[in-house]
Design a protein that fits this description.
7-stranded antiparallel beta sheet, 374 residues, D-amino Acid Aminotransferase, Chain A, domain 1, 3 domains
Amino acid sequence: MKAASGMIEKLAKEQSMLSDRPFTAFVKKQIFFWGTLWYFILEELNKKTHLTMTHTLRAWRHGFLRFHYKLYGLDTSGDPAQYVSDFAFLMTRAKINGRFNELLKNKYASGQLMNLLGMPTPKIMGLIMKGVFYPAGAARTLKASEFLLAAITPGEPLVLKPIWGYHGFGFVCLARDDDGYRLNGEIVSQQLVAGMIDRLDEYIVTEFVVQGEFSRNLFAPTPNTVRMVTLWDREKSEAFVARAVLRIGTSRSFPVDNFKAGQGGLSVLIDPQSGELGPGAMAGAFGEPIWYRYHPESHAPIQGVVIPSWNEVRTKILDYASRLAFIPYIGWDILHTDKGFSILEVNSTLGMPVLQVHGPFLADPKIKRFFQNI
């Protein structure tokens, strides 16, 4: 018993050594707070909107960027307390998933994990680090010109995107056909592609997943993905869908379906039970939401349309979320294909505007309880 007691004390001491000392924790907390405040100010300066001084002060008092305050319609009605504010979310995002945030942010690591767990996700071809291609599972490297010849097969496009990217920034679709090489659909020379790859750093290369007829009919030039957010209910020990939206691209958001302020993509609320779509929202130049029942360019119907095989998709995603119960907040980016669906990537603590443009997140008691228990 004495030996066991000594072992317990040793483990407790070693555990405490892995945790921050009180003073270190205090300093980190202060740095994080002021860094978050500075980021909030920079974001505010980068976004233009029209609000009265009364509403401006009210937005800041409740922790909202003015742009999002207007996007949510809080300048006309609504209770700010029912929304997850920008500042509150920035302050809590590191806590929600803890150190597993880094796992989800790393598209290479999270992609390998999903493959390991048998989830449908694009095949990872390799990484580009400082202009050098590292094939997955191969103990060698390739120069850019070798990569072009070895990895790009005619008729089989590849996706190149930052390992730690977000909002679709830096996305490249690289293809090869009878006319030569194409970057996001535009014909370019082999020399230009090689030069571009030489300048890339910390990029992941995956196969290109072809979207199915349903998604293609909405707006063919961009992948149109479902963003499903799952949260872990600790009381019931089960995952649930907090909100799901369909993001649809436009010529402004090309080559992706980015809804982020001013990027031109649409966010469409999905009924979590039936899979029926509501109207599509686009963020106007100054934060005003613009609503569409039909796609503004393809004229494809949006409102009232039901996503194919929705129940199957939702059931499988909830199963996958249960396998990752130690990561309580996951944003799943899902692309419908003609044979089912593919999870393009998973996200940790994703932004709120694409979700809350359709209504307050905290109006749901289960979601409110989740954030209160962080």
